[in-house]
Design goal:
By secondary structure, the protein is an all-alpha fold. It is about 80% helix and about 0% strand. It is built from 4 helices and no strands. The longest helix has 22 residues.
Length: about 70
């Protein structure tokens, strides 16, 4: 249902806006253009291990924030 997509995108944007900058950036790089973990780390000038940790924390935080909005 095309009408349902608009609100969902808005909710994702709201959740993303409530995340810390590093969390939001790693998710933007990994999801939108589909960057690899290595590419994401390079773009953020961090190690791949750090990018992986930030990604994990970002997902956990996004789930918590999203659940609070429901």
């Amino acid at each position: 249902e095309a009408g349902a997509i608009g609100p969902a995108v808005g909710e994702v944007g709201l959740v993303a806006s409530l995340l810390p900058v590093d969390f939001r950036r790693v998710l933007e790089l990994r999801v939108l253009p589909g960057c690899s973990l290595r590419e994401t780390a390079a773009a953020m000038s961090i190690t791949e291990s750090n990018a992986k940790v930030i990604q994990h924390r970002a997902i956990q935080k996004a789930l918590k924030v999203g659940a609070q909005l429901i």
